[in-house]
Amino acid sequence: MYIHSRRVVLVVVMALVSAHAQLSIKVDRGSLQIQESTGATLSNISLRLQLKEWTVSGALESAGEEHGSDAAGKYDLQRYRLRTEGAESIQATLELRCYHSPEVIVATLVYEGPPPVAKDGVQLGMQFNEFARGMALHRLKLWWLAPTFISDPRLLSGANQLLLWQQMQRGGYHLLVPLAGDGMVGELSVSDFDQFHVSLSSYDATFTPHRIPLFAYAFGYDPYRLAPSAYTAAFAANPSYGRLRWQKPYPEVFRSLGWCSWNTYYEDVNEEKVLASVRSLRERKIPLGFVLVDEGWRSARDQRLVGYDADRSKFPNGLAGLVRTLHDVYHVPHVGVWHVFQGYWKGVDPNSDIGREHNLFAGNDGQYLPDPRGGAGKSFYADWYKFLKSLGVDFVKVDNQGSNPGFTNGLLPLFSSGEGEQQNVQEAALEHLPSKSAHSNENQCVNVLNCMEMSLENAFNWRYSNVARNSEDYDPKSLADVKDHVFWNAYNAYWTANFAFPDWDMFETRRDDGEFQAIARAISGGPIYTTDSPGEEHVDHLLPLVLANGKLLMLDEPGMVTPDGLLRDTSLEPVPLKVFGTITRPGLKAGMVAAFNVNKSAQTVSGVLRTQDVSGLIEDPSRESQAEITLPRSGEEESRSTNEAPVPSPF
C-alpha cells in the first residue's frame, strides 16, 4: 500500500531567521528548500516513512512557528506536518530549529505511529543545488571511517557520517551530518532513484521512536567552525548523554610518550616480553610516560571472557606483579590494559564466576554482554575497573565498541544498545579511573582510550572519555597502508575531533616510514606511542617529540588538513597532504604545518607551504609568505624546492 498526498501546497516563503542569519526555509509544493543569501542549497526535501506493510509519504505543510534559545544560542523553530491521508493513526511533524549565529539548522522528527522497519525506517530525501565538489567520511568498515571525494553527490557510496561541500560559483562551505538518538542512528546515502537522503535505522523492528534527531546543516566561510557549530547545536536541540571534545579536559595520561605491545607481540604477549621492551626503552634513555598492554593478556575461553585477571600461563605473577614491576622498578608513571567493550570478542562466558555475578544480556548467536539496559551492566565494569585500580592499573583501552550491532541487532534499538553500554563504561571509569585533570563535576574526564568506535551510537555517548582512535589500524607491512593510514587520519580528524582528541594509533620507528609516522603523530594533536621491538627503537625519531621529562610537545587542538587540501584527494593528486595546528605558550603563538606525500602512484609531489595554511593565524595579507616544496616517497631522501629553500621542520 502506498499513500501519497495529492493536495498541492502553494509556494510560501517563510524567513526563519532574524537579521543576524542568512539561512531560510521555503515550502515549495509540499517539499522544503534550504537557502542562504546567494541561493538555494538543498531542495526537494521530503519525508518518507517505511512501515512494515506500507510506505507513507506526502506533502509537508506549515504547522506553526516559535522562537527560543538554548545552549547553542537563539533560534527560530518551524514545524511542518506530514499529510498522511488514509493513515490517520500516523502523526509525523518535522521540526527545523534554525540558529541565528552561527548559521545552523537542526532537523528533528516528532513521530506517533507503528514501528518503522528496522533498516532505513525514516528517510528524509533531498537534492543538492549546484554541487561543485565535496568530501565525505564514510563507513569503511563497521568500526572505521575513511574519506571520499566527489564532484557529484550521486557518486557517494553508502553509510556516510559527514559531507562537506562547496557550490559552483559561490563562496563558503556547506556541511551536512546525520544525527542519532531515541534508539535510532542516521547515515547519508544515495537511493536507487538518484536522490540523496538522510536515513535513520533502529535495527529493531519492534521499536517505536518518538523524537528522532535527523540531521544538522551548517553554512559558513570557515570550514573549521562548521562541524563544531553543527554538533553543538545538535546536542543542544536533542541532548545526548555524551559531551563534545571541548566540553571535557584532555586526560593527563596521554600527555606523555607511550609504548604499546600490539604490533610488537600481537596476541603472543607475556610478562617477560613487556618487561624486555621497557628495559630496552630505558637503556636508550627514551622518556616513557605510559605502557599499554594490548590484546593477549586476558583470561578467556572460546573467545569469551571468564575472569578479570591476566592469563597466568603468560603472566605468572598476574597483572599485579607486572604493574608493580613497571611502576617500582622501571618507574613507568602510567600502566594501562586493553579490553573489549563487550567483555571479549564473543562477550562474557555466562557460566564463569564473573558471568554469574553480574547482569548479562543474552545477545545474538549465544553471545552475552554486560546488560546495556538501564545501568544494569554497570557493576560488571565497576568491579573490573575497581580490581584493575587495586593492582595499580591507571587506564584502559576499550576496543570493539562498534560491534554492538552483532550482539543486539533485532533485540534492542542500536542507539539504545550503544548508549546503555557507554553509560556503564563511562560511569564505572569515572568512579575508578578518573583523570587527574578532572577538578570539578563540570570538568570531568576519565583515563579511557576508545577504539574500533567510529559510529554515532558510541561517539554521541562519550560523556567523560576524550581520546579515540581515528582510523583503521596501522599496518607497517604494507606500503599502501602506510600511505592510507596518514591520509585517513588527517581527514577523519575533521569528524572525530568533535567528540574526542583523535588518536592516530601506534607506530614503529624502525621502519622506513618511521620519521614519516613520527611527524604525523606530532601534528595530530593527540597521543603518541610506539610499538617497537626491543633494540629496534629509533631514538632520533622519538626524542624530538618530547621534553626530557617525557611530556609531549603538543598542539593546542587536533591537527586539521589545510584549507587548500580539505576538498582535494591528495592520495590521487600529485600534491602534498598538509596538516596544520597552533601552539600557544606564554608570550608565544606559533603555527605548524606538516607536509606528506600520500600519493600512491606519483614518485614525488609538489606544492607550496604558506603562512595562510594555518587557518586564523595571519590576519594581515601583507604578512603572507610561502615556500615551494617537493616531497619524495616515504622513506626516500628528501628533495628540495626549486629555489632550494629548506622545508620547514614540524618540530
Summarize this structure briefly.
The protein is an alpha+beta fold and 651 residues long.
How would you characterize the largest beta sheet? 10 strands, mixed
CATH hierarchy class name of the largest domain: Mainly Beta
CATH fold group of the largest domain: Beta-galactosidase, Chain A, domain 5
The parts where pLDDT drops under 50 for at least 5 residues are 1-21, 637-651
The beta-strand count equals 36
Integer count of domains: 3
Rounded to the nearest angstrom, the distance between the terminal CA atoms is 65 Å
The helix-and-strand class reads alpha+beta
Helix content: 10-25%
Large-scale geometry: globular
Radius of gyration from CA coordinates = 25 Å
Percentage beta strand: 25-35%
DSSP helical segment count: 12
CATH architecture of the largest domain, please? Distorted Sandwich
Mean pLDDT: 91
